Structure prediction request, 348 residues.
Amino acid sequence: MKIISDYNLSELKDIVSGMGEKPFRASQIFSNVHQYKRFEEMTELSVALREKLAAGYIDEPCKIIRELVSRDGTRKYLFSLFDGNVIEGVLMQYKYGNTLCVSTQVGCRMGCKFCASTLDGLIRNMSAGEMLSEILAVNRALGGSVKDRKITNVVLMGSGEPLDNYDNVIKFLRLLASPDGINISPRNVSLSTCGLVPKMYDLANEGLPVNLTVSLHSPFDEARMKIMPVAKTYKISEILAACDNYFKITGRRYYFEYSLIAGENDSDECADALYRLLKGKPCHLNLIRLNAVKERDLDATSDVKANAFLKKLTDKGISATLRRRMGTDIDGACGQLRRRYIDGKLSV
Ligand code: SAH
Prediction:
């Protein structure tokens, strides 16, 4: 079975003409798919066409099977995919709009020591349409449409390493930006990577001005290798060069994520080294206190210490913020809810 939301308008034109239909049907199907309608709900199409589509394509590749609402309003969604795999997404509500955090792979093979998504390795890549359908499903669940979007921003910070599923992610970003569809601009998308340097260079040349975010988590290569195996392949200096190239080509400033882990990366020495790395760069640093994962023997830096770490950097002129941890009561961090589901501790 194929997934209907994997296709762009021109591919859909070929599909419908292969079914003996007029090309304008493709536009109708495309906008209905982006409304996340089932084939039987696409009433401007003939019954015969709806049946042909249903015989060959999946119209709900990402089904919401559970929704959890946090005290702070954050919503966590558990989705089931057509093959029974389960992934998760998080909706964060801000004054300026709603941000959905989406998964890009089932599992992850990057092996970061603090992260729940990678505990069982990579199960499989997600297709462009599956990623898109996370957004379409939640937009519909919130009563949104393509004209009245309930999701304004997207962050690729759920399970998976987006640049390890490069082609599908690029196609997804283009589908997401389609004016005839859900139409979310790359400028409203943040792509977070653990630092796959060659792909960061490729991304700069795609003409997709997303907000590039790099998970740094340490200013020292040696220490970074201990918590992020990918650091054995790419040095921090190479990552920074790729970020500068991204800025040069796209004109977009870039971002760093830094999860504060007690005793690992939160010392004064780390703050000083971080300052030396980032000073004068067109970047913003997002600090967040670790969301402790029970399978991992790591704790969050205290609130007081995290604020002191932040102040040390901002006092010297680094653009940085300490993010509020959202949804901690509903397993807000990467892969935690899926984990609980797999462990059989969450029923749907
Ligand atoms: N693979 C991408 C996106 C993954 S998750 C990446 O590495 O950037 C998004 C962010 O959450 C990353 O910065 C990741 O390092 C961080 N993260 C993962 N687990 C976390 C946890 N338990 N607590 C705090 N941050 C976490």
